[in-house]
Automatic annotation (TrEMBL):
Record key words, sorted: Membrane, Transmembrane, Transmembrane helix
Protein name (record): Citrate transporter
Entry's transmembrane regions: 7-26, 32-51, 63-81, 101-120, 132-155, 184-201, 256-274, 286-305, 325-352, 364-384, 404-422
Organism annotation: Anaerosporomusa subterranea
Highest taxon listed in the record's lineage: Bacteria
């Protein structure tokens, strides 16, 4: 054999574990099980000993559990959900716009974006908001698409999300730095999502449903504003906290301060008692902690695959493409993988980001890749947010995916242009 043929065979062998993992994920195999198969292949191919594999595992798990700010933010947002703050906000908006469906639709998508950004959990937000949205405006495809897009661009850029945490650990860029330079693009795509919802509601003119929880809420406006106050404070702290802290020269709105303050506001301003408020805070941490634990296992197997040179192989192949094409190609690849493997956005990122690091992509370029994977997940039958929307709006998930497709593809086209022009 020639040297070129030997190199090609070695290259194919090195990426085989990744291919196997992707195939298993597409078949909806549990991510840890899929990663285990790939990890065992990597050990056999690269001669990685059990001692070396165990060291990788013990080094990886503690790293993920040091990402405390996303865990804290996610837990606080869950407590705000439990207190009824978002239901109160929706009721206030309904009264303010006198049942105008297009304004209600815009506010529903705004709540989806804001709540997901604060909690980092698109599915958890949709579980709460989708039934309320169904009762308030009925089944409007564009509203559902707006909620999906808002969720995708929010959980992929949130200071509280698993995806931001994975990005930070794999790139070395701090979570707050990542959130800061991605915030303008989160705002742009959130505004697009609001526009989509407005267009659909205005076009279809579905009225607020009589007897909905929003209509039946008999609380006074003052009571509703009081219940909404913890959500407003948390949103302000997450978005404006860094600027306030810099302006006053001290951590006035640090995670410690705004977490305790939000919980105390819940106890004072809502019907939840102080014990229930703190219990909700503790319960809220379970979602992201559970997933970080699973991702820790998966990343262990990915790091084993890295040891046999898989990502360097992919990077060397990609370097043959024209420089101007590499960024949009990576974004498109992330999107295409996100569609079938939408239940595992964090897992997909764990496989794609090391390639972009090897290719020396800029932090912004890698951020666009993360957002691309998120958008792809909003056409996936296995995505949690999609399933929550299907359940909340009482329609088949195929209908959700079909209604989302043209709008998600439009956003994807915009993202590809951005990745071509802005980086």
């Amino acid at each position: 054999m020639s040297k070129g043929e030997i190199y090609l065979i070695n290259a194919l062998i090195s990426v085989l574990p990744l291919i196997v993992i992707l195939v298993l994920l597409f078949k909806r195999v549990n991510m840890i099980a899929a990663g285990l198969v790939g990890g065992i292949l990597a050990m056999l191919i690269g001669g990685i000993s059990l001692a070396a594999a165990n060291k990788i595992f013990l080094d990886t798990m503690p790293l993920l559990l040091t990402i405390m700010v996303p865990i804290i933010n996610s837990a606080i947002a869950f407590a705000v959900f439990k207190s009824g703050g978002y239901t109160s906000a929706l009721t206030l908006m309904n009264r303010a716009v006198n049942g105008r469906v297009e304004m209600m639709a815009v506010f529903i998508v705004f709540l989806q974006a804001a709540a997901t950004y604060m909690s980092g959990i698109g599915g958890g937000t949709a579980v709460v908001l989708a039934p309320l949205a169904f009762a308030a405006v009925g089944v409007i495809p564009e509203v559902i698409a707006g909620m999906s897009i808002a969720a995708a661009v929010s959980f992929t850029t949130s200071p509280a999300s698993l995806e931001s945490s994975i990005y930070s650990k794999l790139t070395g860029v701090g979570v707050q730095d990542y959130v800061s330079f991605m915030r303008p693009y989160w705002i742009i795509f959130s505004l697009i999502a609001l526009g989509i919802a407005y267009y659909g509601a205005k076009k279809r003119g579905v009225l607020v449903q009589p007897g909905s929880p929003v209509e039946q809420n008999t609380s006074t406006d003052a009571e509703l504003w009081r219940t909404t106050l913890p959500a407003i404070f948390l949103l302000f702290s997450v978005l404006a906290g860094p600027f306030v802290n810099k302006a006053v020269g001290m951590p006035l709105l640090s995670p410690l301060v705004y977490s305790i303050t939000t919980i105390l506001l819940i106890a004072v301003c809502t019907k939840m008692k102080i014990n229930d408020s703190f219990n909700a805070l503790m319960d809220g941490s379970s979602y992201i902690l559970t997933r970080l634990f699973g991702v820790g296992f998966f990343l262990t197997f990915i790091y084993m695959i890295e040891k046999i040179g898989a990502f360097k192989t992919i990077a060397s192949i990609a370097q043959a493409a024209p420089d101007w094409l590499m960024n949009p190609a990576a974004v498109l690849a992330g999107f295409l993988i996100g569609v079938p493997a939408g239940a595992y956005v964090g897992t997909v990122l764990a496989m794609i980001i090391p390639v972009t690091v090897a290719l020396k992509f800029s932090p912004l370029s890698m951020g666009f890749v993360v957002m691309g994977v998120g958008l792809g997940s909003q056409m996936s039958f296995v995505n949690i947010t999609m399933q929550a929307l299907s359940s909340g709006f009482q329609i088949p998930i195929e209908q959700v995916s079909k209604g989302n497709s043209p709008w998600v593809l439009m956003c994807m086209a915009i993202l590809l242009v951005m990745s071509l022009v802005l980086v």
